[in-house]
Each structure stands twice: as C-alpha cells, then as structure tokens.
C-alpha cells in the first residue's frame, strides 16, 4: 500500500492552519494510530545496523517531474505560517510554509525573506555558528547555508520517498542527523554531501524532533510516546519508557540533566536523570504543545495551539498558563541575541519582549 504523507510540521491535524491541509495528501489519522498502538517495550538497545548510503538527490539529478520549484519571494512572507526558528550568531532565522525563510537582524523587530531553492514546507532549522546552518522539511528537503542564511543550496530533495523531515541537528560542520515521518532517520558525516538512512526504531512511527541534552547525549521524540536517547551523539539509541502513548512533538533541554518533552492535548513530562524516569507535568491545558525554548537560568517557555503559552521559572517543574488574545496557533519559540522572546506560528513571528 502506498504511504500517504502525514500532517508534518509537529502539528496536531489542523491545529495551526488549514493552509497546510491543501498541500498534504490524506494519511491514516494520527490520533487513530495512537489509539490503536499496542504496548511498547519499556526500553531496547537498537543497533545501528542495515545502514543504507544515499547520495543526496539534488536538483539536476532529480527527474524533471520531481524537480524542486524555488520558493516565491512574497511581500507577505513574514505574515505566513512559520514553524521553526533558531539563532545564528546575533541573527534570527525562521522557516515555514512554501519554503519561506526569514531573517531578522534586530532581535525580531523586523523580518525579510531570502530565496530558497525549493518551495516545500520547512519544519526545522539549526545553526552550528553564525554562518553555517541547515533547514529541513517536506519532500525530505534538506537545505544548507554557509553565509548566515543569506543563500541556501539543496542537499536533499526526494518527494518520491513521501516522508517529510521534521527536524535536524548538527554537532559540527560534518556530523548531522535529520529525523522525520515513518521512522525516517538520516545521518551525514560529510556536512550533508551524502546521507545514510538508518533505523533507530523497529516500527514506522514518526520521529518529530531531535535535540541535544548535554555533552554527547541526544534525544529524539515522536509518535506513540516515543522517547529515544543516545549517549554517543547518535551512534547507539535506547528507547525510554514514558507514562504516555500519545504523540510527542518536541522537547527542550533545561540543563545537562533536566529535559521537558511535550505534545498532544497538553501532555508534558519532565526528567532529571537524562530520560530514565519521568514526572507528569500539570499544564492546565488540552491544547497541543508544539515547541519551546529554555534559557540558561532555568526559564522554560512552551507554545501551542489556541495561542497557548506556558512559562516556567523553575526549570520546567511547574508552569503558568496564559493564552494570547489573538488565539493564533503557535509552533515554536526562540530567543533573540538580547534575550527577547519571539513566538512563531500562524501569521508569522510575534515579538513578545522579555520572558513571561
């Protein structure tokens, strides 16, 4: 049976915008999958075997029918659906629907769009310094920049896979990992010139986010309460037990030990031992939680559907719930170089100012 593309972008179906719906084929309903999910083993060491080396099918090597179409430069791009952001030196970089890439050099006060070689929805972006970064998204798109986001090259574009990428993480200029739908896990050791397909799960559940939790430890979260940790920058992985079988959309590392993961219907969990044990967080909301950010002093902000904003001043142990007056759905949060908070989601970036 042919796979249908899922509602990617770490979103509950329809939670952020109907704009995504028109670009996605139907899939087996995410909530139905969760309800049908059986018991999972509490933990399992999953070897990095059966690796498949793939050379990035970039434009020019891709059949004409599947060749990427460059993103259109649109005056209203800063008001479009923006799904992820990060800091590149002192510059903010944000990505979203239709391949939109936005830059801000004044801590989120103003934004400008830059060209992108593909118009696929972008769902994740990370930089290793002020110049070099990667963005990923639908059609297994991987973009790379070496000039702080001013220009981007296409490293991977594979619509025939029907597996959107959800997130990306690089340790340095060479080693990186991208994760996505149906267990898609890509790894590179040469800065993205080639990618290796791997399996870290024995099923096809979506992998929605990857992030560092201190030192060489990495964490991936996804469907059916999936939490996977690696002590060696992704070489080996262990599945962790979580008191929850629904979807997790993302997570934030508070410090070298404490981490908060979150997802569907306001569910959130905190671990202070690297993911071995988890405590349920009372968020006070049933809204899907999509993204967040943590500061070095222990402040944590989570955002989600219905303009949900959860703020914590105690490392994620407890949260204060507020809703934005506009009730526009939020997908991510990022801090500017001056510490100000910027929320990303429906109708583009929103400058908040100081952490709530």
Helix count equals 2
Anisotropy-based shape = globular
Distance between the termini: 48 Å
Q: Which superfamily, in CATH terms, is the homologous superfamily?
A: YVTN repeat-like/Quinoprotein amine dehydrogenase
Radius of gyration: 18 Å
Approximate strand percentage: 35-45%
CATH topology, what is it called? Methylamine Dehydrogenase, Chain H
Strand order of the largest sheet: 1-18-17-16-15
The CATH level-2 architecture is identified as: 7 Propeller
Helix content: under 10%
Class from helix and strand fractions: mainly beta
Mean pLDDT: 86
Largest sheet geometry = 5 strands, antiparallel
- Give unreliable regions as ranges: 1-52, 57-62
Supply the number of structural domains: 1
CATH class: Mainly Beta
Strand segment count: 29
Task: Please give a handful of descriptors for the protein shown.
single chain; globular; mainly beta; Methylamine Dehydrogenase, Chain H; five-stranded antiparallel beta sheet
Helices and strands in order:
Elements: H1 18-21, H2 30-36, E1 45-46, E2 52-55, E3 82-88, E4 91-96, E5 101-104, E6 112-114, E7 122-127, E8 133-137, E9 141-145, E10 153-156, E11 165-170, E12 176-180, E13 185-188, E14 194-198, E15 207-214, E16 217-222, E17 227-230, E18 237-240, E19 248-253, E20 259-263, E21 268-271, E22 279-280, E23 289-294, E24 300-304, E25 308-312, E26 320-323, E27 330-335, E28 341-345, E29 350-353
Antiparallel strand pairs: 1-18, 2-14, 3-4, 4-5, 5-6, 7-8, 8-9, 9-10, 11-12, 12-13, 13-14, 15-16, 16-17, 17-18, 19-20, 20-21, 21-22, 23-24, 24-25, 25-26, 27-28, 28-29
Keywords: Photosynthesis, Photosystem II, Signal
Domain Photosynthesis system II assembly factor Ycf48/Hcf136-like: 109-157, 162-316
GO cellular component, one term: photosystem II
């Amino acid at each position: 049976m042919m796979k249908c593309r899922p509602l990617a972008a770490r979103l509950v179906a329809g939670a952020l915008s109907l704009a995504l719906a028109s670009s996605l084929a139907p899939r087996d309903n995410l909530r139905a999958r969760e309800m049908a999910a059986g018991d999972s083993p509490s933990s399992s060491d999953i070897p990095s075997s059966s690796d498949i080396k793939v050379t990035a099918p970039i434009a020019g090597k891709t059949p004409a029918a599947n060749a990427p179409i460059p993103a259109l430069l649109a005056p209203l791009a800063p008001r479009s659906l923006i799904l992820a952001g990060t800091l590149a030196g002192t510059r903010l970089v944000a990505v979203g629907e239709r391949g939109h890439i936005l830059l801000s050099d004044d801590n989120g006060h103003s934004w400008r769009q830059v060209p992108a070689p593909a118009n696929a929805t972008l769902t994740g972006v990370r930089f290793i310094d002020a110049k070099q970064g990667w963005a990923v998204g639908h059609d297994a798109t991987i973009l790379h920049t070496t000039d702080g986001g001013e220009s981007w090259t296409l490293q991977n574009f594979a619509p025939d896979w029907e597996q959107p990428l959800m997130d990306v993480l690089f340790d340095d200029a060479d080693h990186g990992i991208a994760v996505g739908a149906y267990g898609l896990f890509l790894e590179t050791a040469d800065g993205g010139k080639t990618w290796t397909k791997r399996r870290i799960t024995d099923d096809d559940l979506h992998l929605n986010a990857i992030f560092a939790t201190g030192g060489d430890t990495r964490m991936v979260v996804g469907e059916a309460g999936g939490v996977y940790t690696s002590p060696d920058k992704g070489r080996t992985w262990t599945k962790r037990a979580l008191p929850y079988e629904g979807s997790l959309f993302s997570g934030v590392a508070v410090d070298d030990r404490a981490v908060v993961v979150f997802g569907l219907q306001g569910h959130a969990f905190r671990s202070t031992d690297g993911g071995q044990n988890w405590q349920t967080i009372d968020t006070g909301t049933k809204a899907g939680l999509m993204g967040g950010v943590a500061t070095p002093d222990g402040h944590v902000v989570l955002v989600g559907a219905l303009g949900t904003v959860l703020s914590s001043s105690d490392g994620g142990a407890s949260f204060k719930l507020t809703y934005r007056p506009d009730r526009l759905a939020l997908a991510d949060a990022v801090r500017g170089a001056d510490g100000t908070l910027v929320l990303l989601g429906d109708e583009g970036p929103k400058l908040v100012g100081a952490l709530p």
